[in-house]
Design goal:
The chain is α+β, with helices and mostly antiparallel strands. It has a single domain (2-344), classed as Lipocalin (Beta Barrel), CATH 2.40.128. Helix content is 16%, strand content 55%. The chain is built from seven helices and 16 strands. It has helices at residues 2-9, 11-17, 19-25, 30-40, 42-52, 141-148, 200-203; strands spanning 68-78, 85-89, 96-98, 104-108, 118-125, 128-135, 152-163, 168-180, 183-195, 208-224, 232-254, 257-283, 291-297, 300-319, 322-330, 335-344. The strands form three sheets. A ten-stranded antiparallel barrel has the order 1-7-8-9-10-11-12-14-15-16, surrounded by four helices. Strand 5 and strand 6 (128-135) form a beta hairpin. Helix 1 (2-9) packs across helix 2 (11-17). It is elongated.
Amino acid sequence: MKKIFFSVLLFSAAVAVKAQDFDVILAGSKADANKYLENYLRPFGEGQIYNMARGWSSTAKAHKFLGLDISVNVQAAIVPDKLQSFSFKNSEYGTFALAGGATSTNLPTFLGGKTTQDINVTTTVNGQSARTTFRAPEGIGQDMKDAVGFVAVPLPVAQVGIGFIKNTDIKVRYFPQTSFDGVKVGVFGVGIQHEFSYLPIIKKAPFLRLAGLVAYNKVTSEYDLSGGGLAGSNQRTAVDISALTVQGMASVKFLIFEVYASAGFIAGNSNMGVKGSYTVTYTGPPPGNQPVSATITDPVDLKYKQSGFTNTWGLRLNLAFLKVYADYTFAKYNGAGAGIALSIR
């Protein structure tokens, strides 16, 4: 169950899920493998940046000194239709070419649909021509759409908020570097939210709260690929995703309901690498067509950057110490979020 969870959460396990395709994708040149995987994994790498910048607050009201809330929420970056596939052109690759004679087509990303397209690989090993063929990897998007009605990159988030100095909360997301079932993961995040409702103009509207938030979040992980059927050594994936957000927030309370909205800016980076050595087997040149092998080291290094403005609207239900909330964010990757919190003072 943990591996299934991380296969959705982390790029590293996503590669493991597609291990039957992964070895032959590496069969081409390193440049071609990186280009293909960069396109294939783009919605995952970019979507997680947006997820990590969200879910920091569901109210503009600050805690009293040493007031506390513990929250768990799920963020889902909705993948636009145009990012569920990418354009593959033979002319942009040196060792990959579409089987069947076509020179270009649309292929699914990791969050895309199905395909039956084969890709021919022609390269040189030890001065000799070598070749192989792989089926373009499919995506999980159609399965997700059938199950929940939309395609999204999910991320669970747990955090603690503490009332610090007057009108200011400190928010922390933390999970120490921990290994289990071949996955090593660590989380660190910190945010500062300050309420401005003490300003004279705001005091005239006691039902209205205004606040500002600055927050930073970082996730690092590794996934052990050894034993996955790929010959080689020290095989693993490494992931480093970080996001910074600056927001202005307002909330209005009506009895047990609270409406909140925020507008802000996010910026982040997503770095994904495949480390270790991998041995790929090809069909050699005629007349013998005997198999030939080549070993590739640290074959994949993907980097994504995202920045832009976001706008969130949400509703919170306040039931004594229990808070239940849901919101929707407008951005390049729109997002849906929902969570619960235990809040004191």
